[in-house]
Recover the amino acids of this structure.
């Protein structure tokens, strides 16, 4: 059953996923206005109004497929609430986690022409709601609206910048560093001591950080000596500033070998 929201959005019936068949319920969060979403923060009012007429909210339960790699691009998708994992599936069937999107982030890239296909698959992690726009009409609006076009370009640039940082992390940081920075990113701003629940299970965290599960377990164990305690998915950070200092120290340790090499080179030159 559809219901109207304060921005004219309608809720679609949940798509059938594994959790749906088990009878689990999905809680649908009240969606924000489009202006509250980062992608649409700076577009003109006329374009915003046209997008509002096209927007539709859909809810998904854990494990439900939002779209599949190779399918025709039918919609532009933005996460409203929850998490969406982005997967690349090899011809042999092996899956690689490309990333995890959360509130306000676009899933994939808006199409620039007809007959495009999704280059990745997207699945819900836990109860998730997304905002969808018909792909063809969204692409036409991008061509007609300079402000929307600029917003889409900026969104693509932001994604590229984030990917560069992630590649740098995978190449330059060890498992301890990646986990420490990940935990620090989850700490609420302005709090010295905090307790929170990990957004998804440790198997997905290991995949996101590019490490094996046993390596992640060892990294969690090391963090206990620095005031980070975990019980299943619950985390207690005794001192956020101490954890931040640890991230800085680990970063310096990462640079020490190159610094020593530079010093040796200067000594050899002398």
């Amino acid at each position: 059953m559809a219901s109207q929201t304060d921005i004219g959005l309608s809720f679609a019936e949940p798509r059938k996923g594994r959790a749906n068949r088990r009878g689990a319920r999905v809680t649908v969060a009240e969606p924000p206005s489009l202006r509250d979403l980062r992608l649409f923060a700076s577009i003109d009012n006329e374009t915003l109004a046209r997008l509002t007429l096209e927007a539709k909210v859909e809810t998904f339960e854990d494990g439900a497929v939002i779209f599949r790699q190779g399918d025709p691009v039918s919609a532009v998708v933005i996460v409203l609430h929850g998490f969406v994992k982005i997967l690349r599936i090899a011809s042999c069937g092996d899956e690689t986690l490309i990333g995890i999107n959360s509130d306000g982030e676009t899933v994939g890239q808006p199409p620039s022409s007809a007959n495009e296909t999704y280059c990745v698959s997207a699945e819900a992690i836990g109860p998730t709601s997304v905002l969808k726009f018909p792909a063809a009409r969204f692409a036409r609006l991008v061509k007609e609206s300079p402000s929307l076009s600029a917003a889409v370009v900026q969104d693509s640039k932001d994604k590229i910048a984030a990917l560069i940082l992630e590649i740098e992390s995978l190449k330059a940081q060890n498992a301890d560093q990646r986990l420490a920075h990940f935990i620090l990113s989850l700490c609420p701003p302005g709090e010295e001591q905090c307790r929170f629940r990990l957004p998804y299970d440790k198997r997905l965290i290991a995949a996101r950080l590019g490490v094996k599960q046993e390596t992640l377990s060892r990294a969690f164990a090391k963090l206990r000596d620095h005031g980070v305690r975990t019980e299943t998915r619950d985390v207690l950070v005794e001192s956020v500033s101490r954890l931040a200092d640890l991230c800085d120290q680990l970063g310096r340790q990462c640079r020490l070998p190159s610094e020593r090499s530079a010093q040796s080179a200067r000594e050899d030159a002398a």
